[in-house]
Specification:
The chain has one domain. It is built from three helices and no strands. Helix 1 packs antiparallel against helix 3. It is elongated.
């Protein structure tokens, strides 16, 4: 099994978070906790930026604003 780079894994996580947020079952849960999916997404956005700053040689698929998750305040991150 070949290992994926950290940036590649971050992109996959962001895509999964978007799918979860948009899933009807998740939306129907009315699930509330101290950490939102937006908080988790912000963490991975920051991690992705750090990977780019540190010069990781693996190209990243940019996460467009359309794919970013809203924070608790409704602002896309």
């Amino acid at each position: 099994m070949s290992r994926q780079s950290l940036p590649q894994l971050i992109v996959q996580i962001q895509q999964l978070l978007t799918q979860i947020l948009q899933h009807p079952q998740y939306q129907a849960l009315q699930f509330y906790c101290d950490i939102t999916l937006g908080d988790v997404s912000q963490f991975f956005n920051t991690l992705q930026s750090e990977c780019q700053i540190k010069g990781d040689s693996h190209p990243l698929t940019p996460i467009s604003n359309a794919n970013r998750l809203p924070t608790a305040s409704g602002i896309n991150i």
